[in-house]
Amino acid sequence: MSESTTNEPAAGESNTRRQGEPEGQKWLSGFVSLIGLWMAVSPIFYDQAASMLWNNLLIGGAIFLLAGYNYYRITTGHSTSTGVMSLVALLALWVVVSQWAIGGQIGMSGLEVAAMGLVWSNVISGLVAAALSAYIAYAGGRGVRTGAAAGTR
């Protein structure tokens, strides 16, 4: 009997490990997904303008779904989707910039002091989500470029 020389994963070993996806990318994607969920529901806890309510709901929901999709991909043994995580980083930056872009409502005259909590929540959440998703996209893309050609073993 000879030993197998293929690079197939051993019983119980996931394809993720074989493809070089670090376990941390999976958990960071899950964390970014939760940040997106927070962005979507945070207007419930703060006073806000209607435009910010819809912005947070739509963009936060998209971040939640896209980062969750990347988490699912990694969990099922596929590689990180660098395109999806790059889009998440851009959407998260939009959440930061949208505080000033949507109606120019930042400032004591535009928003009440109570609504400033949502502004700071969006800025901090957006910056953290953008940084983490940019890192995930970079780390995932770096592994693809330095690895073997697609379809080879």
Automatic annotation (TrEMBL):
Span of the signal peptide: none
InterPro entries: SPW
UniProt entry keywords in alphabetical sequence: Membrane, Transmembrane, Transmembrane helix
Span of domain SPW repeat-containing integral membrane: 27-134
Coiled-coil intervals, chain numbering: none
Pfam families: SPW (PF03779)
Species this chain originates from: Natrinema halophilum
Record field: transmembrane: 27-46, 52-72, 84-102, 114-138
Region (Disordered), start-end ranges: 1-23
Protein name per its UniProtKB record: SPW repeat protein
